[in-house]
């Protein structure tokens, strides 16, 4: 894991107060962090994680003069836990609610893993009028389910087995599958903290979102993305292998740039903090 330099971010806000909650279209309350001032960057989290996962990027980015916003997806962290709404249309509508409530314009959208689908669906469903650029980190796009026209995908039986394990012992599944998410140098304390974020996700959300990212085909939508796009992916990613996801996504989005982090796993925001933050700051200012 990379070393860090101590930073003193400017946590001031450009107006008097910001509510910690945004109300989605169906009334679900979404917890939202809104730090700093300047050009906005909006972070969307991994499956079962929440906004806290981005703090190691947000603090130095605030110090660099950017406004950083991150929210807990419905059913995750401190947000409301409805029994439905874990499809990509609703999740994209939730993203739209956050963008509208915070009046974000010229925003850079940053999403990890399943959040790539939320960003793409937002653009095809709500348009790119408020979006300047997007960053997809270790995306699950374009399509990871094995079908006759996607023979390299993962068989549905494997996903069904995972969901059965989640429904039986979610904490054990997380613990059993955590090692490839990190690198050997990652501290046990950091691993435990990240797992604690995952455990704040409701089971209904974990299962619903799993169905969404496993079964949604974004191949028809990706060529419609018209904003500058940066894709960042590790070549040691065991969760969303580069050749199945990141590289194919880059080929389908016109003009997309693909950056490959050598030796990086799926959780590169924890294992390659400084490199990722530098790339995000440079791209947000481009």
Secondary structure: elements and pairs:
Blueprint: E1 21-23, E2 29-35, E3 39-44, H1 55-63, E4 66-71, H2 88-101, E5 107-112, H3 115-126, E6 131-137, H4 156-176, H5 188-198, H6 203-215, E7 229-234, H7 246-252, E8 257-261, H8 268-271, H9 273-284
Parallel strand pairs: 3-4, 3-5, 5-6, 6-7, 7-8
Antiparallel strand pairs: 1-2, 2-4
Helix pairs in contact: 1-9, 2-3, 4-6
**What is the β-strand count?**
8
CATH architecture term: 3-Layer(aba) Sandwich
The domain count comes to 1
| Biggest pleated-sheet summary | 8 strands, mixed
Strand order of the largest sheet: 1-2-4-3-5-6-7-8
Oligomer: single chain
Query: Gap between N and C termini, in Å?
Result: 27 Å
CATH class: Alpha Beta
Strand content: 15-25%
Radius of gyration equals 18 Å
CATH topology heading: Rossmann fold
CATH superfamily heading: Alpha/Beta hydrolase fold, catalytic domain
Basic shape: globular
The percent of residues in helical segments reads: 25-40%
Helix-strand pattern, N to C?
EEEHEHEHEHHHEHEHH
SSE class: alpha/beta
Number of helices: 9
Give a verbal description of the structure.
- With 286 residues, this protein is an alpha/beta fold.
- It has one domain (21-284): Rossmann fold (3-Layer(aba) Sandwich).
- It contains nine helices and eight strands.
- It has helices at residues 55-63, 88-101, 115-126, 156-176, 188-198, 203-215, 246-252, 268-271, 273-284; strands spanning 21-23, 29-35, 39-44, 66-71, 107-112, 131-137, 229-234, 257-261.
- An eight-stranded mixed β-sheet has the order 1-2-4-3-5-6-7-8, with helices on both faces.
- α2 crosses α3 (115-126).
- The radius of gyration is 18 Å and the shape is globular.
- The chain starts with 20 loop residues before the first strand and ends with a helix.
């Amino acid at each position: 894991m990379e070393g860090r330099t101590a930073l003193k971010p400017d946590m001031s806000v450009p107006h008097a107060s910001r509510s910690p909650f945004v109300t989605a279209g169906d009334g679900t309350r979404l917890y939202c962090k809104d730090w700093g001032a300047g050009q906005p960057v909006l972070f969307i989290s991994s499956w079962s994680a929440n906004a806290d996962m981005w703090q190691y990027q947000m603090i130095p980015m605030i110090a660099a003069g950017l406004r950083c916003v991150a929210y807990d997806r419905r059913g995750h962290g401190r947000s409301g836990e409805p029994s439905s709404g874990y499809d990509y249309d609703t999740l994209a509508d939730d993203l739209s609610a956050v963008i509208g409530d915070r009046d974000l314009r010229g925003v850079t959208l940053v999403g990890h893993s399943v959040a790539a689908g939320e960003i793409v669906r937002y653009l095809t469903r709500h348009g790119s009028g408020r979006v300047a650029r997007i960053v997809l980190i270790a995306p699950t796009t374009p399509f990871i389910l094995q079908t006759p026209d996607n023979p390299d995908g993962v068989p549905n039986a494997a996903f069904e087995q995972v969901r059965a394990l989640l429904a039986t012992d979610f904490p054990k599944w997380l613990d059993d599958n955590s090692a490839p998410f990190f690198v050997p140098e990652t501290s046990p304390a950091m691993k435990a903290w990240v797992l604690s974020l995952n455990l704040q996700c409701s089971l209904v959300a974990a299962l619903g979102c799993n169905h969404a990212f496993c079964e949604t085909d974004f191949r028809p939508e990706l060529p419609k993305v018209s904003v500058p796009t940066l894709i960042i992916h590790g070549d040691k990613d065991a969760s969303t292998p580069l050749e199945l996801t990141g590289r194919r996504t880059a080929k389908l989005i016109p003009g997309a740039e693909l950056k490959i982090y050598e030796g990086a796993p799926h959780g590169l925001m924890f294992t390659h903090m400084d490199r990722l933050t530098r790339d995000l700051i440079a791209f947000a200012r481009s």
